[in-house]
Amino acid sequence: MNIIVMDRLGLAPQIEEALATVYDPELKPANILDLGLVYEIITKENKQAKIVMTLTAPGCPVAGELMNEVQQKVAAIEGIEEAIVELTFDPPWTKDMMSEEAKLELGFL
Q1: Distance from C-alpha of 106 to C-alpha of 101, rounded to nearest angstrom
Q2: What b-and-e string marks burial along 18-27, b requiring 16 or more CB atoms within 10 Å of the CB?
Q3: Which residue in 19, 83, 21 sits closest to 47, CA to CA?
Q4: Measured between alpha carbons, how far is 27 from 15 in angstroms, rounded to an integer?
């Protein structure tokens, strides 16, 4: 799945780098980008970043931890003053959204 990027600050590469260090503990070693959990990265001129993401399941027991980690890591990027994480289940996540590398790492290929 491709991430929608609307990057007014030119910080999407740094945001993606930060998100690549966030892992769903149930699906390590694949990060949330390779799992296809990140749908949108948006930055605005007011130094705000918004990440629209999903979870592997609506009842994910680590939902709060994952969202907090995403928020903290994005907020720590120089040039960003506020990071907002929005959770969506539309479209619902499926294994088809994973990168080929993640599927291989997790034994889905």
Answers
A1: 9
A2: bbeebbbeeb
A3: 83
A4: 21
Sign of the Cα pseudo-torsion (13, 15, 18, 22, in order): negative
* Residue 108 pLDDT: 86
pLDDT tens per residue, range 2-16: 899 999 999 999 999
Q: Please enumerate in sequence order all residues whose Cβ is within 8 A of that of 56, keeping only pairs 6 or more positions apart, or say none.
A: 24, 26, 27, 35, 37, 93
The answer on pLDDT for 90 being more than 90 is yes
- Give tens-digit pLDDT for 42-59: 999 999 999 999 999 888
3-state SS assignment for residue 27:
helix
Distance, first Cα to last Cα, the chain? 17
Q: Count how many residues are written for the chain.
A: 109
Residue 103 DSSP SS3: helix
